[in-house]
Amino acid sequence: MKRYRQEKILELIAVRDIETQHGLADALNAAGYPSTQATISRDIRELNLTKELSSDGVYRYTAPKKGTGTEYAERLRTIFKESVTNVAVAQNLVVLQTLPGLASAACSAIDSMNFPGLVGTLAGDDTAFLAMDDSRAAEQLKLEIASML
To answer: Residue 49 region, left (φ>0) first, then alpha (ψ -120 to 50), else beta?
Structure first.
């Protein structure tokens, strides 16, 4: 269902100027894909949709150009691998140490990877906190991050 919904989203934004998540929800509902705002928000993030100014002077959702979504994700992974210097677990938190100024980039990369159990990320200058559902999920994420490094 998710794949079909996301394909429909790409189809809709290709033929119509859709300005808001509410407008996208209305278009999806009319097309037979009832969705919540949270689902649409996740779909927008996963599809790497952005807003651009249309010729009418309004902002509308657009899909990335061919190949840029994959390239973007790969660039984030490279930044992540090169910026993280240490990973530790404190109960349900995964703590990342990064090179100065790169904690935000590391969080952006983690957010784009859609790890199960990830509740949210918070970045400082050289430290990032990754909040997980529980300590088991935190340990699992630490192992996955360590394998990426």
So the answer is: beta
pLDDT in tens, 113-123: 778 889 999 99
Strands 84-90 and 127-132: unpaired
Q: CATH 3.30.1360.40: which residues of the chain?
A: 68-148
Specify the domain boundaries for CATH 1.10.10.10 within the chain.
2-62
Tokens found for residue 86: 């240490």
Q: How many CB atoms lie within 10 A of CB 70?
A: 11
* pTM of the complete model: 0.53
**CATH number, span 2-62:** 1.10.10.10
Phi-psi region of 9 (alpha: psi -120 to 50; beta: other; left: phi over 0): alpha
**CA–CA dist 117, 92 (Å, integer):** 10
Distances (CA, A) of 98 to 47, 81, 108, 125: 27, 10, 13, 8
The dotted CATH code for 68-148 is: 3.30.1360.40
